[in-house]
Design a protein that fits this description.
The structure holds two protein chains of two kinds. Chain A is α+β, with helices and mostly antiparallel strands. Chain A has two domains: 200 residues, Multidrug efflux transporter AcrB transmembrane fold, CATH 1.20.1640; 70 residues, Alpha-Beta Plaits (2-Layer Sandwich). In chain A, 69% of the residues lie in helices and 9% in strands. By secondary structure, chain B is α+β, with helices and mostly antiparallel strands. Chain B folds into four domains: 208 residues, Multidrug efflux transporter AcrB transmembrane domain (Multidrug efflux transporter AcrB transmembrane fold), CATH 1.20.1640; 73 residues, Alpha-Beta Plaits, CATH 3.30.70; 66 residues; 135 residues, Gyrase A, domain 2, CATH 3.30.1360. A four-stranded antiparallel beta sheet of chain B has the order 6-7-1-15. In chain B, β6 and β7 form a beta hairpin. Classes of the chains: A alpha+beta, B alpha+beta.
Chain lengths: 291, 520
């Protein structure tokens, strides 16, 4: 069996500024996208059905390729806001963001057109906005709780803030990517953002721990932490990529949403941990404490 | 002896695993569990599946209503207050006002109809001369409890087996009623729970100037309610009932007075000719006339002679059999004190998954999980290249999932997609931690003494503990907040982390030690 090795990066070739510049630039672009989105649409990221209210139907349509969408468009009044086909079976996921027509009426329209209703889901706008508030509060709480815990564990400012900034960036960049790629904020993506907090901190803590609390030179410790940390992230990444693909094929939206956002988050985490966090730590180790 | 003491973590893990497998597969456990958890369980395991994975309908909605607390009754009785308050509000009948005494002199007043704001209720109380402490959205605890009872009754009466009704409260203080019914069509459930289900019978009869209408039978006036009958032989579908002995004479008298029990009975043509019909009985459900009927000559003569009250049997006719069933269900379950706020502009949410879709999701999500595990295993094998390190890693991570599944089966927690996502997250964090252990232990050459192993293992555990703590913190809001679908995800991720840190990850350390320090 061929074992792959995490390549050793020669960090001495880059200055701290150079190292930090890349992730910080990406973070800045991400923040710009989110700010622009906020200015343009009034929300930092498009909320999905669960937060805006509306109805979602999953219908099985027995029609030849290409005609199904037309049939769906014709069958409903009001027409669905979005139609998404599920590759593994002949079903379509339709969303409606209307308050006038209840889901019962939509189900009837579907049956009248000869579609089979596989599932339906409806959320009222007021319930949705309350859920949104709870969800955002949850993310904020999780982030603050994590930050407090990190400060408690390391008890020094620079290494702690390095972890917190990396985690912040790990959340912000996927959110910006969601905007760019048109992925809506749903309960699944909120769950994924929370998981990013959990996952991304792992590799940061590992790196800090190796550099601050172990004997051995900076670069040696870094390489050891990287070997473990990169393996961890790659394993999770592999699992999430596969889960995203499979869940999308099967039309399991919750798992697909979690998977997609985690793939973004984990990739971002590689960047942030081994460039941003690392440069801050190196500055701290060589200049910050005066050795 | 020595080996047992050294490997107690592995032994403990095996014991817990066996326990979990027992909870998962033992038929004895299934029998116990089947009473408590009503959701569909699959054939071979004791796992319970939630609506997403078994099909069914879930409705979550608050009750409609506003409440005034601390109302001083000033010696008035409840009916008088109800009448006064209803009189002050447009479109509110006495049946929509509930007065509940909480002390000698006062209590709460609720109005359970859409479109009345707390402000309106306050004004109505002011106008009727009652003082109150405050008015608010929502209904009282008693009303909610009553609604839960009646909704459960309705679901049972309708023969929707395995349905559950419960109250849930969000951390922000909103109260919701959560109704879950496996397998049934969503519309059926909505129709059933959407009805207030107040049933009454009015007499509609000609007087000197036009027609008059008076309520002659109400929900509580029935001694017993029979099963809905198909009818046939010239008879409409109907519900046989027995009127209470205490009200039977009065009812009989009213029938004779209004002319429903006229000479030779009465022929009702209320629907076709409401201004020229004989006296009629109107069957009214939630304020809507669902049927009108007259009285047969035989029954009429029994009433006129006064014999009927000795054996006060009666039938409530309906237009069709499903109508008869609804009337029977409503009469038996009782009327909801407040309607559920569902519908296009309501506050609630509802979801429906067809059983076939649920079944499909079950297999698909299982497949997704298995494929994700293979992906993890693949990376781990390629990375370490040593089967001795990688295989126990994958096995250990999987054992965490087995333990969690056993736990879910043991307590009857219904598995949903979010729980499956939690399992996948657990495998992810689990393997991460095992990688940390493996790398740490195997760092810098061979592990040839137990002491070296122990010190390295301890170092690794600091990171694992720290990572676990952050994951638990990150997930705890979701576990507590009732964001519905994600609670299971958070609970099982946290449980997985706890099981991992306390049980499986230390055991993996022991396994690794046994494999790596074999010579010493």
């Amino acid at each position: 069996m061929v074992a792959f090795e995490v390549p050793e990066v020669d960090y001495t070739r880059y200055t701290n500024r150079q190292l930090a510049a890349v992730p910080l630039a990406v973070l800045a672009i991400a923040l710009l996208i989110i700010a622009g989105w906020y200015v343009a649409t009034g929300v930092p990221v498009n909320p999905g059905l669960e937060f805006t209210g509306g109805a979602e139907l999953r219908v099985a349509v027995d029609a030849p390729d290409g005609q199904a969408r037309e049939q769906i468009q014709a069958a409903f009044d009001p027409a669905p806001e979005s139609i998404r086909g599920v590759p593994s079976d002949n079903t379509y996921i339709l969303t409606f963001q209307t308050e006038e027509v209840g889901v019962s009426a939509l189900e009837e329209q579907a049956r009248a057109a000869g579609f089979e209703v596989e599932s339906s889901y409806t959320v009222s706008p007021s319930f949705g906005s309350r859920t949104q508030l709870l969800a955002l509060g949850g993310v904020a709480f999780a982030f603050l709780g994590m930050s407090a815990l990190v400060f408690l564990m390391f008890r020094t400012f620079v290494p702690s803030i390095a972890v917190v900034v990396s985690a912040f960036s790990d959340i912000v960049i996927p959110v910006a990517l969601m905007n760019v790629l048109g992925i809506e904020l749903t309960l699944g993506t909120v769950a994924a953002l929370l998981m990013i907090i959990g996952y991304s901190v792992d590799s940061d803590i590992l790196l800090n721990n190796h550099i601050l609390r172990r004997s051995g030179g900076f670069y040696e410790s870094t390489y050891r932490a990287m070997r473990t940390g990169v393996t961890m992230t790659l394993t999770s990444l592999a699992a999430m990529i596969v889960m995203t693909i499979v869940a999308t094929l099967f039309g399991i939206q919750l798992l697909a949403a979690i998977g997609t956002v985690l793939v973004f988050g984990l990739t971002t985490d590689l960047l942030n941990t081994y460039m941003l966090n690392l440069s801050l730590l190196r500055w701290y180790k060589y200049e910050g404490v005066g050795n | 002896m020595g080996t047992i003491r050294e490997n107690w973590r592995i032994i403990l893990l095996i014991i817990v695993l066996v326990g979990s497998l027992f909870a998962l597969f033992s038929p004895t456990m299934a029998e116990e569990g089947s009473d408590a958890a009503d959701l569909a369980s699959s054939g071979t395991t004791n796992l319970q599946y939630g609506l997403q994975l078994s099909g069914g309908t879930r409705i979550r909605a608050p009750l409609v209503g506003v409440t005034a607390d601390g109302v001083e009754f000033g010696g008035d009785q409840a009916p008088a207050i109800e009448q006064a308050v209803a009189g002050e509000l447009d479109g509110v009948t006495v049946a929509d006002v509930i007065v509940r005494p909480t002390s000698q002199t006062g209590g709460t007043v609720e109005v359970t109809v859409d479109g009345v704001s707390p402000q309106d209720l306050g004004n109505a109380l002011d106008a009727s001369g009652y003082t109150y402490e405050e008015t608010r959205e929502g209904v009282t605890e008693q009303t909610r409890a009553q609604a839960v009872d009646i909704l459960s009754n309705k679901i049972n009466e309708a023969g929707l087996s395995g349905g559950t009704v419960q109250q849930i409260q969000t951390p922000t203080g909103e109260n919701y009623i959560l109704i879950e019914v496996p397998d049934e069509n969503r519309q059926e459930v909505v129709d059933l729970v959407n009805q207030r289900g107040s049933v009454r019978v009015d007499a509609y009869y000609p007087t000197d100037d036009g027609y008059d209408q008076v309520t002659v039978l109400e929900q509580d006036d029935f001694q017993s309610i029979g099963n809905a009958q198909q009818g046939g032989e010239g008879q409409l579908p109907n519900v046989p009932v027995v009127v209470r002995e205490s009200v039977a004479p009065e009812f009989q008298q009213e029938m004779v007075r209004t002319g429903v029990a006229g000479q030779g009975g009465s022929r009702c043509s209320y629907t076709s000719n409401p201004n020229g019909t004989d006296a009629c009985l109107l069957l009214i459900v939630d304020g809507q006339v669902v049927n009108s009927f007259g009285m047969s000559p035989g029954l009429a003569s029994g009433m006129r002679s006064g014999e009927w009250a000795q054996d006060p049997r009666f039938i409530l006719q309906t237009q069709n059999f499903s109508g008869a069933r609804q009337v029977a269900i409503n009469l038996r379950a009782g009327a909801l004190p407040a309607p559920l706020d569902i519908g296009p502009d309501g506050e609630g949410t509802s979801s429906f998954v067809s059983p076939s879709q649920g079944q499909q999701f079950r297999t698909d999500s299982l497949l997704t999980g298995i494929i994700a595990v293979f992906a993890v295993a693949g990376v781990v094998f390629v990375r370490y290249g040593e089967i001795e390190v990688a295989l126990p890693m994958v096995v250990t991570a999987l054992s965490e999932v087995v333990i969690l599944l056993g736990f879910a089966a043991g307590i009857g927690y219904p598995l949903d997609l979010s729980v499956i996502a939690g399992f996948i997250a657990v495998i992810g964090t689990g393997v991460d931690d095992l990688i940390i252990i493996a790398d740490e232990v195997m760092a810098e050459g061979d592990v040839n003494s137990r002491r070296v192993f122990q010190s390295r293992f301890k170092k690794a555990f600091w990171v694992i503990g720290a990572a676990a703590a952050t994951t638990i913190i990150a997930m705890s809001p979701l576990a507590v907040l009732s964001l519905g679908d994600l609670q299971g995800f958070a609970i099982f991720t946290i449980l997985g982390v706890v099981v991992g840190v306390l049980l499986t990850r230390p055991a993996y350390g022991d396994i690794l030690r046994a494999l790596l320090t074999r010579d010493t």
